[in-house]
Structure formats: C-alpha cells, structure tokens
C-alpha cells in the first residue's frame, strides 16, 4: 500500500482531503512507481490514467535439494515455501469532477517520485483549457491526442479485456442490466458517442475506423435547449426533471391528431407525431418537467433513429452508446434503448459499457504507452481496486448519486500471459462460464451473499494463521475483512456493479481482496501439509487399485476422483469437519460419497466408452491440492497413460483457496515420478504435460485460458476434457458445450446447492458427455 | 343535371385507410410492442387507386382516361360516363392535419345558364363565398397565388382554389357547414389526415355530414403526381435551387420530373413522413420523425413568445444561429480534419446554450434561427440516410413547413448536395402543403 497519504500530506493534500470523501492515498494508489500518465478532461469530469507497478507478496514453492540426503524423514514437508516480492503491472484510472483538478494535480506532483515520465497524453474537450495548468503543475509536456481515436482505442481495449463490459439495459425488468459475453472477435461495430453532439463511428479493426456520420442534436442540445426552456442549469438536474415529467402534455401524439380512432386503425395513440407540437400556442404554460421529458424523448428518439439508419446502411447490428448523455444514466439508457428497438424493429441492439466514462483516458494512455505493447497482454479488472458501476436506484436523484463529490476508480492488472479461448469450445460466442446468474436469480443471490458473509470470519482466521510470523497480519486481515464485507454489501444493493454477479465473481473478488492486503496464499501451509500426507499414501493407493480387476478399478478410480474432491477447504461443510477432525481421511471421504446411482450418473456410459479405443489426449483441470490431486487425479492420470492416452494436466497459475497451483503441481509430479515408473516415463517422454491455466480463480472460465495451454491442446489433439470440482464443474461449466468428450465431476458439498439440484449433501455429479455428431 | 340519381356515390368510407399509417414520426416511451406493430412495411396503394368495379348505383364500369374501349364510341361514351359518374357539386378535398386544415375547392367555370338556373341557393352561396374572398374568418386564408386556372376535371372546366386554416378552428368550420346547410346538398366530403377520424363524429352530429375518410399517404402521392402532371398555370410545378448557399447567386429553377420514379417523398407537416415511391401505386412509408414543423413552431413559441408561424420565420430570418449552436470550429478551432468535418458544420445544436453567459447574450431572433436550422438539418440528415438506404437519388420535400420558408428549403438543398457529394438532389413543389387535399378531391372524383 502506498504510504504517501498517511505521512506525506502537504498543504495540497490537506485541501484535497477536505473536498473529497476518500483519503487521497486510496484514490491515487501506487503513485510512487507511476509512469505514463494520460488525462481525459471532459465537460464536467476528469479521468486520469497511469501505469504503475505493484509489489506483491507471493508464496513460492521450491523443492528441497535431496541430493546427498537419506530418505526423507517422516515429518519433513515435501517442499519449502517462501514468501517473495513480485512486481506486477497495473493500470489505474481515476474519475473525478473537474473542480478537483487542481488539487489532484498538486497531490500527484507531491507524490510522484522516481518517475522518468516526461509527457502526459491528454484528450477530451477540456484538454486545451487545462493544458497550461497541467504543464505547470506536473512539469510534464502535454501531448494532445485525438478524441475519437482515444475513444475507440479505449473501447476496443475494454471490449477485449473486461468480461461483461457491455450490457443491454431494460428498465423495469429484473435484472435491469443484461451483460454480454465477450466475443472473441469484437469487430465490426458501431460506436455512437453522444457528447454535446453525436458522432457515429464504424470500427472495423484495431486500427481502422471511420467516422460515418453524426448529428448536431445531442447532449449539448438537451442541456442547452433544456436550460433555456426550464431555467435549470445542470445537466443532472435536467435529467431529474425529465424523469418526473409527462411528455404528452407538450408533444402532439397520434391520438391528438386521430382522436379515438387510432385504436380501430391499429395505431398506437401514444406515438409522438410532433415533438413540442402542443406548445405551439401562446396561451398555455408548460411545466419544466414536462418540457424536459419531451426534450429527452425528442433527442433520444432522434439519436436512436439515426443510429439505426447508419447501422442498416453499413449492415451492423452491434451498436455501443457512449458519451456524457448516456453515461450510466438509466433515464437516457432507457429512452435510447426504446428508440433503437422501435426503429430497428428489434434488429439492432443498443449496448452500453460499464467503463464507458474511461474510454478516452484508456485510449490516450494506450497511445502513450505503445512502446510497452499493452495490447499484447491480457488484462483483468481488479475487483478490489475498482468502484464498480454506479447505483442506478430510482430512489436516488441524480444530485444524490454517488458520483457527485466522490472518486470513481478502475484498476486493471496486467496478466503475465495472454488469455484465449479453449479451442475445444463448441461455440465460443455463446459460451457462458457461469451456471447461475445471480443478478437474475434473486433467491440464489441472497443465499450466496449470506454464505460468503458467514464464511468471512473463517477466511480471516485462516489468513492470519497463514502468516504467524507477521506482526501486522491481524491488522491487514481486519482491513481485508472490511473491504470484502463492503464489497458484499455493495453487491447486495447493486448486483450488477461488476457485471453479471456469479459465485465465480464472488470468489474472485475475495481473492483480489486477499491479495490487496498481502495474503497471497493463505492456504500455502495447509496445501503443503496435505500434499505431504497424500504423497505418503500414493503408492499404497496405487497398489490397491492395481490389485483390482479392470472394471472394478475403473469404478474405484472414479470414486477416488470424487472422494478426493470432498477435500476442499473452500466449502464450509468440509472445512468444519476438517478443522475438528484432522484425521478425516481418504477412506472416510469415500464413505461419505453418495452410493450409485448418483445424482447425475452417466458412469455406465463412461465405462462403456473405456471399453473402446483409448483417447488420444486428455486435458484435465485439477482442483484441490493434497488428497484430491495426489490420490484422486494422479491414479486416474496413470490409468489413462497406461491406456495409451496422453495427458495435459492444467493447474491454476496463481493461488486460490486450496487449489493446487502450477508450481505445486510440478513438485508433486516430480515426487510421484520418483515413486512411480509410469508417471516417470510419461513425464520424460512428454506424454504427461503440466501446464498452467492462466487463472487464479477457484472457478474456470474456458474463454480466458493461457495461450500456451490452448496451443498444446491443439497440437496434441485433445479429445477428452475432464473438469473436476464444484467451482469448475458446477458453479461454472456445468452447461458448457465442448466439441469433444467431457467428464464433469463434483461432489456437492453445499446443502443448499445440492437441494436445488434435487439431492442431499455430498451428492455426486458424474456427467459424461459426448458431443452430438 | 340529373346527377341526383346517383345517390351516394361514395360507398368506400374509410376502406382504404384501414391498414395505413399516419404521417407521424416517432415513438414515445410506451410499449415497444405497439410501436413495432404500427409501422407497416411496403404496401401497395392499389386499393386506393383501383377503379371500383360495381361500387356505384348503376354498376357501370369506370373507364380510366385513355383506356381503350372501342374506337368510335370512345369519346361519346366517356362523356356520358363522366356525366353519370360525376358527383354533385360542390367539389371539395379536405386534409385535416395536426396543425393545419387544407381545403381544395374546384370552382366550375363552365356552368351553363340552364345549370345556373338549377343550382340551389346554398351551393351558389358557397361558391360565391369561397371565390370572392381571400380570407375567411380570422384565420382562414386562400392562397390566391396557388390557384390553378382552367383545369379540366371530370369533363368540367374550372379553377382549383387552395384554402387553409388552423385545425383548432375545425369546430367553427363544421358549424359553418351547418349554417350554410351543406347537408341539403347531399354532397360528400372526402377527407384525409388524422382529423378525418378525429372530427368524423362532429361532422355527423353537428353538420349532418358524412365524411369519406381516406388514407393520407395514398392521397398525398395521388395529389403530387396529379398536380405535377397539370403543371402550375403553364409553369413547372417542381423546382430546385442552384447555389443554395450563396445568397447572391442562389436561384430557384424549374425542374421537370420527367422520370419521377423512384422518388423519396419527404412530407414535413407537424411531424415528418418519408415515403419511397416506386410507381404510381407502389410506395412504402420508410420512416418518419416527430421533429417537424410542429417542433419548430412549438419550440419557437416557448423560446421567443411568438404566436404565428410567419412571425417565427420572420424572426428566424433576422437571427444568427451560430451564437446558439456550437460549431465544429468552436471545438477544433477550424475543420476537424481527422473526420473531414468542415469548421462551419454544427457540432452541437444549442450547444452554446450550456453556458450561462452565452444564454444571456443571445436574442430571440438567434434562437428562432437556431431552432429552424436544427429541425431542418435533422430532416435533411434523416432524408439523406433514407435515400441512401433505399438507393434513391431524387428527394422531393413537401409539406407546409416549407411554406414561405426559403431558409429551410435552401438549407435542405445545400445539405443534401454537400453531404451526398452531389449525389442527391433536393426538389420542391409549389403547392407544398396541399397534396393530401388534392388527393382527397381526386378520390371524390374517382380520378385514378
């Protein structure tokens, strides 16, 4: 964490403190390493972007050097863990009102140390106005960037890198926001930017876009004409007025012209025949609200109509709307959506963006950072550091909305490796990783939010316990608790804040918050211990399996995979048992398993398949460390290898709960190879390959996987995908359709979920699927 | 004249209108379902213009002019037919819009002495009243300069008069009909426009008059094609502007619509309807917008306190819209080259009015001008996009918004030419707002 705010508060910092609701060090984070600034100054809001590096504590595992040593002793752990500092790249975006610009610049200047930055990229209508101020305050040269170019660069970037970035807005439906799954190919699309005027841009590739039209009737018309008509000066207040008005008092409707006959003619009498048609009279007064509403409809309808005409002319059906007229305002999103539906007869979809306000700043930043090749990396939204979508609760007037007087943040982490689709997805464009949409399913949302709240104290306890030698662990854990708790509360009220709310996003948010407070891997010691115990049992388990007949062995292997899966510190039911009874073992786990027939049971079909020719290559997504991996997955892998099937074993790149990480899996494999000639030769001959998923989530998004994995899957012609665990096979991917055979295995360790799926606790999911020919 | 035997010649009340759309623009925020339902796609106007076989009392076939029915008897038979089929005088066509009522009246000039003798008093009084005045009541006006002279309609020669009055005076008009005892003439009022529906009951109960309601788009197209074919007292009906942006060199020039199809027809009344016309009876309503003449006038009333359309235009002619609008050059200092936008283009209509100082510095004239420019540019822009989408390059602008509105016409002409790089031509028509009413009259006379 940046210390700058705490002790570095100069006079400017103090003045900033008075005017804003967050301490500045929580807004301008990681400034000390900041470089490559960009700023987008709009009519009322400023967006600042910078790139910085963040030092993280990470848990590293390393094999002991066994050379020259005797056989290991009983209590020796299988590998050592060390905490190291790792530096990762992060993008910071901060949005604040123009009134704070001077104070903010002062604060940045005071805390900007060791920067080699000489230039700041600036865009937006206000860039010119504030040029001198910025140059004087920051001692940086202002480089003006083209507004539309920045917008489009920013738009491409968020569409590619932020899942659930785009959404459709449906007023009065639950949920109001329907987030779109990201398409692998985002082009071509139409961007309609409604600032003071309207620009319509067709974007064809990363670098190719064309201004195809525009209109002078835009946000400036609403604001300017609205101010003249209503004497209301502020844009937000005008919107507020409009939300309360009745446009039919001002507009001439079809029914005003046709009388009651519109019904028999099959016309909608409510259609507007002539905007402001009723105000053509000197002897009537019109209310501000009614006029504002009429104006809003007039402008929104006009924009929607032109957008449809341009979309039709260019054969495009994806239209993204941005600009200050739209920016998260439910009123305008609704009227624009309505207009687009009306004029396109449903053929064009009005799409909005969660980070629409940041596009210019992101684009300007990217222009300045071209030498860092930001577009070559994949980026991930950091839920811990980002504010999320603003509340659109109708109870809040625009003046009360959180955006006034506060700062909105977006942080994105650079992922070390690019992420791509799993090539085996049947239809990447329709793939949705998550099984239940909690934005949609209020009952499930309530349950899971409560569940995560109740589990929080346990997580805090474990986090503290994982760093016994740290002096400030308790304090950091308290901050973590506070942060995650407040995220959960936000999500209770605004489930759409970070896109579609899912169990996965709740889990990921928790991981981000843990990382934020330097608890990179609270389970590292538990995993180490469990791996040690399990490794000792490996040979014994394998011998027992080998003693079985073929058919018996196949069932035992399946049960082993499932039993291993009972061990999951992430599930509350199991952690209760494990915390109270550490001797709870593999055999006992098997006893806990549901007897066949399982809740979902296609084992017979699987067995039948096994009697056929071997698979060419199996891709296995591993779940937990310890018993699950070593006594469940590895014997299964070994059997596949013996059948002549190659195996790609994919583990998480970073830690999440007690899930096995890639680096742990390497050590475990090495240790098993030392005991088992089958695994040994397979590793040597590269018939068994260990890869990383690119993820640090307890769930699995098959559309964002490490590129290396995807390449390997293609090279080896994988024809079987095995996904195990509740997080990867139930919360996500339960309905994922693949182009090859798949096994989805899990034990339902959550009573509520089990009941929802129609079975008792510890019900078994054994889902073997063969794609339709 | 004996035409009384015909009884009620119009038995088609409202038939053609059942599926048609009004010339209105945009949706409100109500049910999207309704909105989608109401926009008919390509439709044929054939039902409106097809001869009504067997519909009349005699069951006689109505010969289209020029249709072949035997060499020798053609002429005589036609005259005979005309006489039989001709409705009784007076001949009116009525178009009741959202703001204005348009009335066309055919004044027969070939009345024989015998006929004059037979002419009932009330008929004569109507004829005299309409033709000897140029203004009726406080708001009715006859556009004398539009009068079409020596027209032959259904075998009768006469003059066609063009009269307008505000829709809110419709009750007075109906009352007048009652006072002048119209119903005794057994005449039929062919009416189009939304008001034909709205006021139908009033016509019946107050005036004892049965309206024949007609589809307004059918009437519009019919009217335009007819008026264009008869010309304007020897001059051309259609015209265009040369050098529309240059007040010195700008010239209004006649245009001969030799090849009228396909044609984009933009009717700017209170709202705007845009039609693609492919032939006499094949057209579709492409779209519409609610930002029309009613919006211009309505906003002007609110912004300037003006009370008439003429006043609004007069103010606009003296104003400067660049004080109100934010231009491209106000933002970029000149042209926005990245996108090829000229500095003079309006970037944001009323955009300067976001600033308090500028709000205080503008005049009512400036506001009226800006309103006119905003609405006109928008119509031009939508019309241009429709022309592109429909692949049509001649665009005819009609409707009463263009009446005495050279600023708007020149702007439309210029904008269409500039943004289409000379591909599109904006055309105008002398009888800009009266085509619906003419179409209604043609329906009365069953002229296809």
TrEMBL record, chain A:
Activity control mechanisms: Activity is strongly promoted by Co(2+), Ni(2+), Mg(2+) and Mn(2+). Activity is inhibited by EDTA.
Keywords for the protein's UniProt record, in alphabetical order: Acetylation, ATP-binding, Coenzyme A biosynthesis, Cytoplasm, Hydrolase, Kinase, Manganese, Metal-binding, Nickel, Nitration, Nucleotide-binding, Phosphoprotein, Transferase
Enzyme class: hydrolase
Gene Ontology cellular-component terms listed: cytosol; nucleus
Keyword Flavoprotein found: no
One annotated GO biological process: coenzyme A biosynthetic process
Catalytic reaction equation(s): (R)-4'-phosphopantetheine + H2O = (R)-pantetheine + phosphate; (R)-4'-phosphopantetheine sulfonate + H2O = (R)-pantetheine sulfonate + phosphate; (R)-4'-phospho-S-sulfopantetheine + H2O = (R)-S-sulfopantetheine + phosphate
Cofactor(s), names only, from the UniProt record: Ni(2+); Mn(2+)
Superkingdom field: Eukaryota
Subcellular location: Cytoplasm
EC code: 3.1.3.-
Gene3D superfamilies referenced in this protein's UniProt entry, alphabetically: 3.30.420.40, 3.30.420.510, AF1104-like, Uncharacterised protein PF01937, DUF89, domain 3
Alphabetized GO MF terms: ATP binding; hydrolase activity; metal ion binding; pantothenate kinase activity
The UniProt record lists the keyword Transferase: yes
Ranges of residues in domain Damage-control phosphatase ARMT1-like metal-binding: 452-760
Record text on subunit structure and interactions: Homodimer. Interacts with PKM.
Role played: Phosphatase which shows a preference for 4'-phosphopantetheine and its oxidatively damaged forms (sulfonate or S-sulfonate), providing strong indirect evidence that the phosphatase activity pre-empts damage in the coenzyme A (CoA) pathway. Hydrolyzing excess 4'-phosphopantetheine could constitute a directed overflow mechanism to prevent its oxidation to the S-sulfonate, sulfonate, or other forms. Hydrolyzing 4'-phosphopantetheine sulfonate or S-sulfonate would forestall their conversion to inactive forms of CoA and acyl carrier protein.
PANTHER family associated with the record: 4'-PHOSPHOPANTETHEINE PHOSPHATASE (PTHR12280:SF20), PANTOTHENATE KINASE (PTHR12280)
Family as reported in the entry's similarity comment: In the N-terminal section; belongs to the type II pantothenate kinase family. Belongs to the type II pantothenate kinase family.
Identification of the protein by name: 4'-phosphopantetheine phosphatase
Record organism: Octodon degus (Degu)
Gene transcribed to yield this protein: Pank4
From TrEMBL, chain B:
Localization, UniProt: Cytoplasm
An example molecular function term from Gene Ontology annotations: pantothenate kinase activity
Entry keyword Transferase: yes
Chain positions covered by the region annotation Disordered: 1-79
This protein's pathway: Cofactor biosynthesis; coenzyme A biosynthesis; CoA from (R)-pantothenate: step 1/5
One biological process term in Gene Ontology: regulation of bile acid metabolic process
Reactions it catalyzes: (R)-pantothenate + ATP = (R)-4'-phosphopantothenate + ADP + H(+)
Pfam families, per database record: Fumble
Protein family: Belongs to the type II pantothenate kinase family.
Name listed for the protein in its UniProt record: pantothenate kinase
UniProt organism field: Octodon degus
């Amino acid at each position: 964490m940046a210390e700058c705010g705490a002790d570095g508060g100069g006079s400017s910092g103090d003045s900033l403190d008075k005017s804003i609701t967050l301490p500045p060090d929580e807004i301008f984070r990681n400034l000390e390493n900041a470089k490559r600034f960009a700023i987008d100054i709009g009519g009322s809001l400023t967006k600042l972007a910078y790139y910085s590096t963040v030092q993280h504590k990470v848990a590293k595992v390393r094999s002991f050097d066994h050379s020259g040593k005797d056989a290991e002793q009983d209590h020796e752990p299988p590998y050592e863990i060390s905490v190291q500092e790792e530096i990762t790249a992060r993008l910071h975006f901060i949005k604040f009102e123009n009134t704070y610009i001077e104070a903010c610049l002062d604060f940045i200047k005071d805390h900007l140390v060791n920067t080699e930055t000489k230039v700041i990229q600036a865009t937006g209508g206000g860039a010119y106005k504030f040029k001198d101020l910025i140059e004087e305050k920051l001692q940086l040269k202002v480089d003006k960037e083209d507004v539309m170019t920045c917008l489009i660069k920013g738009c491409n970037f968020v569409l590619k890198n932020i899942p659930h970035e785009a959404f459709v807005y449906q007023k009065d439906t639950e949920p109001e926001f329907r987030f779109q799954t990201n398409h692998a190919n985002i082009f071509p699309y139409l961007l309609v930017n409604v600032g003071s005027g309207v620009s319509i841009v067709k974007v064809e590739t990363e670098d190719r876009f064309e201004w195809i039209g525009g209109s002078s009737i835009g946000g400036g018309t609403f604001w300017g004409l609205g101010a003249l008509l209503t004497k209301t000066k502020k844009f937000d207040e005008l919107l507020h007025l409009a939300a309360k008005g009745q446009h039919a008092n001002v507009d001439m409707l079809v029914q005003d012209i046709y009388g009651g006959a519109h019904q028999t003619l099959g016309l909608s009498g409510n259609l507007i025949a002539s905007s402001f048609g009723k105000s053509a009279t000197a002897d009537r007064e019109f209310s501000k609200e009614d006029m504002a509403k009429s104006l809003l409809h007039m402008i929104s309808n006009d924009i929607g109509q032109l957008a449809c005409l341009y979309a039709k002319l260019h054969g495009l059906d994806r239209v993204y709307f941005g600009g200050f007229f739209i920016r998260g305002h439910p009123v305008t999103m609704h009227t624009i959506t309505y207009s687009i539906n009306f004029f396109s007869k449903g053929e064009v979809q009005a799409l909005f963006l969660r980070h629409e306000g940041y596009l210019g700043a992101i684009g300007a930043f990217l222009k300045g950072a071209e030498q860092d090749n930001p577009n070559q990396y994949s980026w991930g939204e950091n839920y811990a550091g980002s504010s999320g979508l603003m509340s659109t609760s109708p109870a809040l007037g625009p003046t009360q909305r959180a955006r006034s007087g506060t700062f909105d943040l977006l942080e994105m982490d650079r992922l070390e490796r690019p992420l791509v689709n799993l090539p085996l997805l049947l239809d990447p464009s329709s793939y949705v990783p998550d099984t239940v949409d909690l934005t949609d399913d209020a009952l499930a949302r309530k349950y899971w939010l409560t569940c995560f709240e109740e589990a929080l104290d346990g997580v805090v306890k474990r986090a503290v316990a994982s760093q016994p030698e740290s002096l400030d662990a308790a304090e950091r854990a308290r901050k973590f608790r506070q942060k995650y708790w407040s995220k959960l509360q936000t999500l209770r009220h605004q489930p759409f804040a970070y896109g579609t709310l899912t169990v996965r996003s709740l889990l990921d948010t928790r991981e981000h918050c843990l990382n934020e407070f330097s608890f990179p891997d609270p389970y590292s010691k538990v995993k180490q211990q469990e791996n040690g115990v399990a490794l000792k049992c490996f040979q014994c388990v394998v011998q027992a399996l080998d003693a079985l007949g073929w058919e018996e062995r196949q069932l035992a292997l399946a049960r082993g995979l499932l039993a291993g899966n009972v061990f999951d510190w992430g599930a509350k039911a199991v952690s209760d048992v494990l915390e109270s009874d550490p001797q709870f073992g593999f055999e006992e786990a098997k006893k806990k398993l549901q007897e066949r027939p399982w809740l979902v049971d296609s084992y017979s079909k699987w067995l039948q398949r096994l009697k056929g020719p071997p698979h060419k290559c199996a891709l296995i997504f591993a779940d937990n460390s310890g018993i699950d991996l070593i006594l469940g997955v590895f014997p299964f892998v070994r059997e596949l290898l013996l059948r002549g099937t190659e195996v790609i074993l994919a583990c998480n790149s970073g830690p999440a709960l007690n899930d096995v990480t890639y680096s742990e899996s390497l050590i475990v494999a090495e240790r098993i190879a030392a005991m088992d000639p089958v695994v040994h030769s397979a590793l040597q001959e590269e018939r068994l390959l260990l890869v990383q998923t690119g993820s640090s989530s307890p769930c699995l998004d098959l559309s964002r996987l490490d590129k290396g994995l995807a390449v390997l899957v293609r090279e080896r012609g994988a024809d079987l995908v095995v996904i195990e665990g509740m997080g990867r096979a139930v919360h996500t991917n339960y309905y994922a359709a693949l182009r090859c055979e798949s096994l989805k295995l899990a034990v339902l360790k959550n009573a509520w979920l089990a009941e929802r799926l129609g079975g008792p606790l510890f019900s078994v999911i054994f889902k073997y699927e063969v794609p339709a020919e | 004249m004996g035409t009384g035997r015909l009884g009620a010649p119009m038995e088609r009340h409202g038939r053609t209108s059942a599926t048609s759309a009004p010339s209105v623009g945009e949706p409100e925020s109500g049910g999207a379902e309704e909105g989608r339902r109401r926009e008919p796609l390509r439709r044929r106007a054939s039902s409106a213009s097809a001869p009504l076989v067997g519909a009349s009392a005699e069951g006689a076939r109505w010969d289209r002019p020029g249709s072949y029915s035997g060499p020798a008897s053609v002429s005589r038979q036609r005259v005979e037919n005309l006489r039989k089929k001709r409705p009784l005088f007076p001949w009116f066509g009525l178009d009741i819009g959202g703001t204005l009522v348009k009335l066309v009246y055919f004044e027969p000039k070939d009345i024989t002495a015998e006929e004059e003798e037979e002419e009932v008093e009330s008929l004569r009084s109507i004829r005299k009243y309409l033709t000897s005045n140029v203004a009726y009541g406080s708001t009715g006006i006859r556009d004398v300069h539009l009068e079409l002279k020596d027209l032959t309609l259904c075998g009768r020669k006469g003059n066609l008069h063009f009269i307008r009055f505000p829709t809110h005076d419709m009750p007075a008009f109906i009352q007048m009909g009652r006072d002048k005892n119209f119903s005794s003439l057994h005449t039929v009022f062919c009416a189009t426009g939304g008001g034909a529906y709205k006021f139908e009951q009033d016509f019946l109960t107050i005036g004892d008059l049965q309206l024949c309601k007609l589809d307004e788009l059918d009437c519009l197209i019919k009217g335009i094609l007819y008026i264009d074919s008869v010309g304007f007292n020897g001059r051309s009906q259609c015209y265009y502007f040369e050098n529309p942006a240059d007040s010195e060199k700008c010239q209004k020039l006649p245009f001969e619509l030799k090849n009228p199809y396909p044609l984009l027809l933009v009717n700017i009344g209170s709202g705007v309807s845009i039609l693609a016309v492919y032939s006499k009876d094949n057209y579709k309503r492409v779209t519409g917008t609610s930002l029309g003449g009613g919006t211009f006038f309505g906003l002007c009333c609110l912004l300037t306190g003006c009370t008439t359309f003429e006043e609004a235009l007069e103010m606009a002619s003296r104003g400067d819209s660049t004080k109100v609008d934010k231009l491209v050059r106000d933002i970029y200092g000149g042209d926005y080259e990245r996108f090829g936008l000229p500095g003079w283009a309006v970037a944001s209509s009323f955009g300067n009015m976001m600033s308090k100082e500028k709000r205080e510095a503008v005049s009512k004239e400036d506001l009226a001008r800006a309103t006119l420019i905003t609405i006109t540019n928008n119509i031009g822009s939508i019309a241009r996009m429709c022309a592109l989408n429909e692949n049509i390059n001649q665009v005819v602008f009609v409707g009463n918004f263009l009446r005495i509105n050279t600023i708007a016409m020149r702007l439309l002409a210029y904008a269409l030419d500039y943004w289409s790089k000379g591909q599109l031509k904006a055309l105008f028509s002398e009888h800009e707002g009266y085509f619906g009413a003419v179409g209604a009259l043609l329906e009365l006379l069953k002229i296809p």
